[in-house]
């Protein structure tokens, strides 16, 4: 019996030798697994925050009203303290300044600024009173919105409290006006810190030091000194007139741009026009203690009475600025939800205001964003 089993045993052994055993089952790699990123708040971080709200002039009340509706629909942990401020006032009421100092955060519609006549801009007054030294405008392509250039994602950071645009000027003698311009190292530090924290690769300093050798020369010295402390970030410089030409021809070459006050206003509006228009560009003004969020580039349609009467102002810029505000308040998931909903509405293309090639009203765009939030 043992002899008869030997051939069968030999056959089994032969098969084992000719056919190597199958490899052991592989454990799934930890790196290949998708993991959610958890935001771990400190106790009390979910407490609703009070935000000072300034509806402003012209289309301001229309678009700020949209933000209020959307925030309520998404149950965002913010509530508003409303104040009426208008551009023809001699100064910002003291109770408004105190409210912003208390809340440390403000959402603002556009304020009309009188041209000439010695009337100070209330926008400038707010920035100086609260020392909001950094203005930030993010100009980027929105999926679904056709533009002349693709791959545009520019952040313009400009000094907000000094230079020609700050209103620091006086008449020396009749007919001779002197504008004061200083250098501020802190705007250079802010630009590089922003680039570092947001994984940006390059900072470009915009200047006119070939003519303004002292003032803009000091600005460049500050930028160069700060750049040495951030070796992982590429740094370069460009003269402002060449910068404008490069913006309209090859805007994708720029990443973060840091500028003195006046140049930054021109550069940010140019970049906004290239990326889709001022109606879709978010922005804000920030200092060490306070921040005001508003439409990023100049609200040239603030006084457009037709848009106000028809209620067809574009709310996208202020909605995206509100998402920036929510991140500033450390409510990242609400910010992501709002930004995603706005981008979805733009991508679908069904509800767009006239400046984006559509015919929708402000309310229709708001309804579409709310629907996207609740899907």
Explain what this protein looks like in three dimensions:
The chain is α/β, with parallel strands linked by helices and 375 residues long. The chain is built from twelve helices and twelve strands. The chain has helices at residues 2-18, 60-73, 94-103, 122-129, 185-197, 215-227, 240-249, 261-275, 305-310, 316-328, 332-348, 362-374, and strands at residues 49-54, 78-82, 105-108, 134-140, 153-159, 169-173, 176-179, 202-207, 234-239, 256-259, 282-286, 291-295. The strands form two sheets. The protein has a ten-stranded mixed beta sheet, with helices on both faces. Strand 8, helix 6 and strand 9 (234-239) form a beta-alpha-beta unit. Helix 2 runs parallel beside helix 12 (362-374) and helix 11 packs across helix 12. The longest helix has 17 residues, at 2-18.
Offer a few descriptive terms.
alpha/beta; two-stranded antiparallel sheet; 12 helices; globular; 10-stranded mixed beta sheet; 375 residues
Summarize the structure.
40% of the residues lie in helices and 17% in strands. It is an alpha/beta fold. Helix 2 (60-73) packs parallel to helix 12 (362-374), helix 10 (316-328) runs antiparallel to helix 11 (332-348) and helix 11 (332-348) packs across helix 12.
């Amino acid at each position: 019996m043992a002899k008869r089993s030997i051939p069968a045993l030999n056959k089994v052994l032969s098969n084992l030798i000719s056919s190597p055993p199958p490899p052991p089952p592989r454990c799934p790699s930890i790196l290949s697994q998708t993991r959610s990123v958890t935001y771990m708040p400190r106790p009390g971080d979910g407490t609703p925050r009070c935000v000072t709200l300034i509806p402003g002039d012209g289309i301001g009340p229309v678009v700020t009203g949209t933000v209020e509706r959307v925030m309520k629909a998404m149950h965002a942990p913010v509530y508003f303290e409303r104040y009426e401020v208008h551009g023809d006032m001699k100064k910002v009421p003291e109770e408004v300044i105190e409210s912003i100092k208390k809340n440390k955060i403000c959402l603002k519609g556009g304020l009309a600024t009188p041209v000439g006549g010695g009337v100070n801009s209330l926008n400038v007054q707010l920035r100086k009173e609260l020392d909001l030294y950094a203005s930030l405008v993010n100009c980027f392509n929105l999926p679904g919105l056709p533009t002349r250039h693709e791959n545009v994602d520019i952040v313009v950071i400009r000094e907000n409290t000094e230079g020609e645009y700050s209103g620091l000027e006086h008449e020396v003698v009749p007919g001779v006006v002197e504008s004061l311009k200083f250098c501020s190292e802190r705007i250079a530090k802010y630009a590089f810190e922003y680039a570092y924290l947001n994984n940006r690769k390059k900072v470009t300093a915009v200047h006119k030091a070939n003519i303004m050798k002292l003032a803009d020369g000091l600005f460049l010295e500050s930028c160069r000194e700060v750049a040495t402390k951030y070796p992982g970030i590429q740094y370069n410089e460009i003269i402002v007139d060449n910068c404008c030409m490069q913006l309209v021809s090859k805007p994708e070459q720029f990443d973060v741009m840091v500028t003195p006050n006046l140049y930054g206003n021109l550069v940010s509006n140019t970049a906004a026009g290239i990326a889709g228009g001022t109606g879709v560009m978010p922005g804000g003004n920030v200092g060490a203690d306070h921040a005001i969020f508003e439409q990023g580039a100049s609200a040239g349609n603030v006084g457009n009475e037709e848009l106000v009467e028809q209620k067809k102002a574009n709310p996208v810029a202020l909605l995206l600025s509100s998402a920036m505000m929510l991140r500033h308040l450390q409510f990242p998931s609400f910010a992501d939800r709002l930004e995603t909903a706005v981008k979805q509405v733009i991508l679908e293309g069904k509800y767009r205001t006239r400046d984006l090639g559509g015919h929708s009203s402000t309310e229709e765009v708001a309804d579409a964003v709310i629907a996207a939030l609740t899907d």
